[in-house]
Design a protein that fits this description.
Elements: H1 6-16, E1 27-36, E2 40-49, E3 52-58, E4 66-71, H2 72-79, H3 85-90, E5 95-98, H4 113-124
Parallel strand pairs: 1-4
Antiparallel strand pairs: 1-2, 2-3, 4-5
Helix pairs in contact: 1-4
């Protein structure tokens, strides 16, 4: 399935249902992938409830709790494990606006074995 397509977003949500619930780890996050193929932008919104994506849709929602922006290529590098999200944030490759505190309970999830397995599975099914 094609990266950052609705099918891909749905599959990511499906795989995350196996995550151990983390009560209170909730946020509505807007993602902006800049410099996408063809020179455009891909935007999608994820509703995260108790540490798992509850829903994700292509499109925009400026009223989301926060917005994370990075280049399309950097997002692929993070998915492949070639670029650590923390490093990308510290280097300014990821820009975060809005209620950044809403992301704090979500960040530890990216360090779990469950997340790494999920990421590997999703990557194996993804076409770029």
């Amino acid at each position: 399935m094609r990266y950052a397509s609705q099918e891909w977003l749905d599959r990511q949500r499906e795989l995350q249902q196996a995550f151990t619930p983390r009560p209170g780890a909730c946020a509505r996050v807007r993602y902006r992938l800049l410099d996408a193929p063809g020179g455009g932008e891909i935007s999608y919104v994820a509703d995260v409830r108790d540490g798992r994506v509850d829903s994700q849709q292509l499109g925009d929602d400026p009223s989301a709790d926060c917005t994370m922006s990075c280049t399309y290529d950097d997002s692929i590098a993070m998915l492949r494990g070639e670029l650590a999200p923390t490093t990308a944030f510290m280097n300014g490759q990821i820009k975060v606006t809005g209620n950044v505190a809403k992301l704090a309970p979500l960040m530890p999830i990216t360090q779990t074995a469950q997340y790494r397995r999920h990421n590997a599975r999703l990557l194996s099914e993804t076409e770029f």
